[in-house]
Amino acid sequence: MPRFLEALDATIAASGRRVALVAGADLAHVGPRFGDPEPVSAADLERIGREDREMLAAVEAADAGAFFESVARDDDRRRICGLSPIYALLRALDGGRGVLRRYAQWPDPQGVVTFASVIFE
Q: DSSP letters along 40-57, please?
């Protein structure tokens, strides 16, 4: 990833323009559909939401290291599929602060997928 990030930085700098970076990625994937033995309970949804929001605080702070650590802390138990694109975006940002615009969960009997939108201006 370091070479990708270096190339991205060089491309942005060479453009001489303002650029928009977009990381399209889901967050958690939990439940039998994703390999867990048990269905997702209401208590699980609450825990997942709490853990996602803690992780998103690092995203809002544009802190790539804290974001990575928040996923690694539990060995990626929630299967954050957006780890790579979100991490790359945070590394490419030159500081700033993001604002969480929306967080939601898409539960069904076999699992839950979570997602959010964070905007950096």
A: PPHHHHHHHHHHHHHHHH
